[in-house]
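Example 9 (inverse folding). The structure is encoded as follows.
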């Protein structure tokens, strides 16, 4: 029996491999639960008392040389990770990475920003939680003004009031307070209104508002800017301005574009008229300029504002506004090509 163990020791000493699986097999054969070492240990009781010591020393030696051998071979073979890298086939075609797509609201927002960027407008942003001054009072909507009701405001706190902004005109006030004319800026952002959610409206949506202030800015400048914009975004240049009312602009107008009546959808979305309302605009009321410490006897300007959802729905023929907020990837993935 001792001779057998001596043979095993020789076997271990001369063992060599460069294969990690073979090394693992070697480990199991020798020091695994049912390996040689535990087998010889279990035979210990059968050994004659006079041989016990020699036998015991031999098994211990077998165990030690095996452990040492495994350590040595492991080191030369490297770790599991190294092995995986060695097995890696660098010529294999890479697996496809799923590319995401931008949200239609972001796509339209960026398109509009681009169009105005080309004619010298910068982008301004402001907080979604606003105070009364920036959302109402500075915009020529003093306390108790009936036009405040038009805005269906979500109030957060009373006295002093904090609210969720109802339009990004608040950003324009902040921009006017911090900058001197000439001012050319557009303010994109999320706005909130306490309205019932339906296919056509939501309690939050996105706007882009524009502001232009300089000496001698006239209504003709506003009209020309709108024409340029509608041509760039919709490829349509027939527009009309209908008189309207906003507290912060005078005169004020609603902008319609001629969409056409070529398809059944055109009939439906324009209610058979061919015309579609896309935004509000007007010449900035001098009171607003004065509120922002801009000299209204020297400067004049125009402002306009539009809903991004409305435009996205028009351009992509989306029937229900709610689908824009569902975050269903099957919907969003359809816009991959529009980026
Ligand atoms: N702030 C207006 C709204 O939210 C839009 C607008 C902006 C109208 C600028 C005129 C001028 O409806």
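The amino acid assigned to each position is listed next.
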């Amino acid at each position: 029996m001792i001779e057998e163990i001596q043979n095993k020791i020789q076997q271990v000493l001369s063992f060599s491999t460069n294969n990690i699986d073979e090394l693992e097999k070697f480990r199991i054969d020798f020091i695994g639960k049912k390996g040689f070492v535990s087998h010889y240990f279990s035979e210990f009781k059968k050994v004659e008392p006079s041989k016990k010591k020699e036998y015991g020393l031999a098994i211990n030696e077998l165990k030690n040389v095996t452990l040492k051998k495994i350590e040595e071979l492991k080191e030369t073979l490297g770790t599991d990770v190294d092995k995986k890298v060695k097995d890696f086939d660098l010529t294999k075609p890479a697996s496809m990475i799923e590319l995401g797509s931008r949200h239609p609201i972001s796509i339209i927002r960026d398109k509009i920003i681009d169009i105005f960027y080309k004619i010298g407008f910068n982008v301004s942003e402001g907080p979604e939680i606003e105070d009364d001054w920036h959302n109402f009072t500075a915009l020529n909507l003093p306390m108790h003004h009936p036009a405040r009701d038009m805005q269906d405001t979500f109030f957060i706190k009373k006295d002093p009031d904090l609210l969720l902004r109802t339009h990004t005109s608040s950003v324009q006030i902040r921009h006017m307070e911090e900058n001197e004319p000439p001012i050319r800026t557009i303010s994109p952002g999320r706005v909130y209104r306490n309205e019932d959610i339906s296919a056509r409206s939501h309690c939050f949506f996105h706007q882009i508002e524009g502001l232009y202030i300089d000496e001698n800015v006239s209504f003709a400048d506003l009209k020309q800017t709108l024409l340029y914009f509608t041509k760039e975004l919709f490829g349509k240049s027939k527009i009309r301005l209908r008189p309207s009312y906003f507290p912060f602009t005078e005169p004020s107008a609603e902008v319609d574009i001629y969409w056409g009546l070529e398809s059944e959808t055109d009939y439906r979305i324009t209610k058979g008229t061919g015309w579609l309302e896309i935004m509000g605009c007007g010449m900035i009321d001098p009171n607003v300029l004065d509120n922002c410490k801009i000299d209204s006897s020297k400067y004049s300007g125009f402002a306009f504002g539009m809903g991004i959802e409305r435009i996205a729905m028009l351009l992509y023929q989306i029937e229900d506004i709610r689908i824009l907020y569902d975050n269903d990837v099957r919907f969003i993935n359809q816009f991959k090509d529009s980026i």
